[in-house]
Amino acid sequence: MSSIIQLLPDHVANQIAAGEVVQRPASVVKELLENAVDAKATDIKLIIKDAGKALVQVIDNGLGMSVTDARLCFERHATSKIRHAEDLFSLHTKGFRGEALASIAAIAHVEMKTKQDQEELGVHIIIEGSKFVSQEVAVLPKGTSFAVKNLFFNIPARRNFLKSDTVEYRHVVDEFQRVALAHPKIHFTFYHNGSEMFNLPPATLRQRIVTIFSGKTNEKLIPVQEETEIVAIQGFVSKPEFAKKNRGEQFFFVNDRFIKSGYLHHAVMAAYDGILKDGAQPSYFLNLSVPPNTIDINIHPTKTEIKFDDEQALYAILRASIKHGLGQFNVAPVLDFDRDSNLDTPYHYKDLQGATPTIQVDGNFNPFSDDKPNKHFSNYKKPESTANWESLYVGLKQDADDIAHITFENEEMTSSLFNDEEIEHSVHKTYQIHKKYIVSSIKSGMVIVDQQRAHQRVLYEQFLVNMTVHQASSQQLLFPLNLFFSSSEMELIQDLQVSLKNTGFVFEENNTDHIVISGIPVNVTESEVSLVLEQLLGDLQDGIPESSFSQSDTIAKSMAKSLAVKTGTHLTEKEQENLVNGLFACKDPNVSPFYKPTFITMRVEDLDKKFAL
Ligand code: ADP
Ligand code: MG
């Protein structure tokens, strides 16, 4: 029988390996930055075009390479960083697999220039899809420059798989920030399409954090420091009152390498136990130094996961040192984040006159009778796509100006739930149970409304109407609000400005690290503004939708989520009633903006059946 096994040619093997190492432009950024750090550079420039899809270039002033090494570094398993298997247990560098450059060269156009300090001349190499195109001697400064162009030019499937520039850019920024935070002593600059995005001069960790995440971060930071035989911990955590809605600012570094660890994250959260609001996320920037032979970083090709020898001890030490840090700064054991519900205006309808509508009621209308199918009560199915939601708002036109009108516009629905008798005798028409559900009697039985979801639906439709049908009115602030954001968050806000303006926000001027807001939407209070924007930024981690319609949709959803009255809030009878009326005046009252049921009904017959047992 003939043999069928063959060795794969190198360039094919490299392309396959590339799949593991290079998923997107940000992967190239990570590998090149880490190589520059390993080469002991003190000044590193990152230059990208089109979110890295067209170009990723890293220029360093590090050790450079000899002519032979310059050629060799593109071979698979070519590394200067380990020689023996044992070296794996005493690693002080980021790279060691000798895979990255071979992989990158297999799937892009690479141009490298490098010169060692002691040499007169350097070398300039061009390599495309693993093929050497040229090699020349050149006059160069000390250090190395890698330019990686047209990523995935020879693998269209992968190229097409890349996300929008906004999303890819975010990933690049994430990688850049991770390396920059791990090495505050190194000067980093970052240019995107010719504009300087970051310029981070050599600094302490605290200064570096503040330069990256805006000046306001400084007051949020509490230092954490601990030295034991197993681990030395150094870094900062945020005061609990500055906790965020999302996990954007959480960084662990182990021996100057960014890592992800659910286990260590848990230790941090345990230290905050009892002082954080549900779901709130502290920021942390923590450097753990451990002896290299007590960790195994070999378990993942892109090396963001790690295995520690003595995980349990590490957990305990980390938790204790953060608790200690928080204690030293007199962070009160329990902070009351809950807003005084009396100060809330849970929904717009609250103060409107005429909450008891004078409407034409069809007393005989029965939403449950089979011969009169009512689309509002049909079982809701999550739509395959949201492409058609715009049609919900077509035709509302200027009528939308009169919110009260909208409230009761959908008369058929309202009338089907509350018969005239019940509407007239509005005393005890609704009951709130467990500060969560609103129960009300209807002709056919009872309806139970989930207050939080219902209010989300009401607000969501209001915001959408405001944004899509006409310019929302805004309330002028007496004193403009200054809100500070990191530069990447500022980018997102810039991109969203038009949509935000449509909701009623008025922006005064644009700065690099903060926005000045002089007007806010009518149904948002001043104290809620930063909450709303933070939630929105958290919801946009995966990028801004391209179309303005889906942008509005995302913003409306996010704002509805932040502003809706929460489970656990007491509602007055009037508020309950208005909420129920508001819900059934919605175009799509059955589900929350997140496709969760907003209410259930129970027919008298169903109740009878239960009692018959
Ligand atoms: P690794 O970093 O795992 O060793 P790479 O493929 O990333 O593998 O790099 C291969 C080798 O090329 C490195 O070991 C190093 O010797 C050399 N090299 C890569 N980038 C640089 C740089 N910016 N400056 C100096 N040498 C470099
Ligand atoms: Mg490397």
Give a brief description:
The chain is of the alpha+beta class.
**Which descriptor suits the 3D outline?**
elongated
Number of helices: 18
CATH topology of the largest domain: Heat Shock Protein 90
Proportion of residues in β-strands: 15-25%
CATH H-level superfamily of the largest domain: Histidine kinase-like ATPase, C-terminal domain
The unreliable regions are: 332-363, 365-427
Instruction: Trace the largest sheet across and list its strands.
Output: 5-4-3-6-2-1-7-8
Number of domains: 3
Mean pLDDT: 80
The number of E-state strands comes to 22
Give the helix level as a range of percent: 25-40%
CATH class of the largest domain, named: Alpha Beta
SS-based class: alpha+beta
Q: Terminal Cα separation, in Å?
A: 76 Å
Strand and helix layout:
Layout: H1 10-21, H2 25-38, E1 43-49, E2 55-60, H3 67-72, H4 100-106, E3 109-115, E4 122-128, E5 131-138, E6 143-149, H5 156-161, H6 165-182, E7 187-192, E8 195-200, H7 205-213, E9 221-227, E10 232-238, E11 250-254, E12 257-259, H8 262-271, E13 284-289, E14 295-296, E15 307-308, H9 311-328, H10 403-407, H11 411-417, H12 420-424, E16 430-433, E17 437-442, E18 445-450, H13 451-468, E19 474-484, H14 487-503, E20 506-510, E21 514-521, H15 529-539, H16 548-563, H17 573-584, E22 599-603, H18 604-612
Parallel strand pairs: 1-7, 11-13
Antiparallel strand pairs: 1-2, 2-6, 3-4, 3-6, 4-5, 7-8, 9-10, 10-13, 11-12, 14-15, 16-17, 17-18, 18-22, 19-21, 20-21
Helix pairs in contact: 1-4, 2-6, 6-7, 8-9, 13-16, 13-17, 14-16, 15-16
Bound molecules: adenosine-5'-diphosphate and magnesium ion (MG).
Family: Belongs to the DNA mismatch repair MutL/HexB family.
GO molecular function, one term: ATP-dependent DNA damage sensor activity
Organism: Flavobacterium fryxellicola
